[in-house]
Give the backbone structure.
Amino acid sequence: RLFLSRAHVDTSVERQWLQEAVLPALQQWCWREYQLEFQMVDMRQGILDEVSDCRCATDMYSAKLSECSATSVGPYMLAITSDKYGFRPLPRCIASDDFEAIARNATKDDKSLLQRWYQRDMNSAPPCHVLLSEELWAEDRKHQGSRMKEYRHLQRAFLTSARNAGFSFDQTRAYSASVVEQEVFQEMLRPNTSARCVWLHRAFMPA
């Protein structure tokens, strides 16, 4: 199983080429030489709305990537990056100690925004603050544009307030990294994984 990590739109041409030309050839070769099935796992296929990256979908991607790492007998991750950095999802769950430290270092308006979008989960142990549910996000689709604008404001508030609170680079990455970057940090930068991961970066060069 090969997990394909990529931005939604920026790598659509590469994805189509992989699906139409590379995948069939690899499937035939793996079966002919080793009697193994080759599967490419593309979790972004058919997803058009960036909002899907910022909820449970992100956790689902991470779980599927871990599954590919555990079950594949060969390479298990291919990351394709280019000029587009990709969508930056907010964490679905934040340790309450971290959330409260961020809120203390936010402006009055930003603190109000943080408290409106996150609520404390009274049943979790250790305590955490969770992002508002899908139902609340979609309760008024006429205002999706303004909600996305507010969402981006919330991202900036998180990052600025986390830095003001003295969070390290690794800690602030949870509030600023794209889905692809999170996947790369999850697997490619771990010890003993480089031989089973491939990272391709496409760069347009001046003529």
Remarks:
- The two ends are 38 Å apart (CA to CA).
- DSSP finds eight helices and seven strands in the chain.
- The beta strands are 2-6, 40-41, 77-81, 93-95, 118-121, 128-131, 197-201.
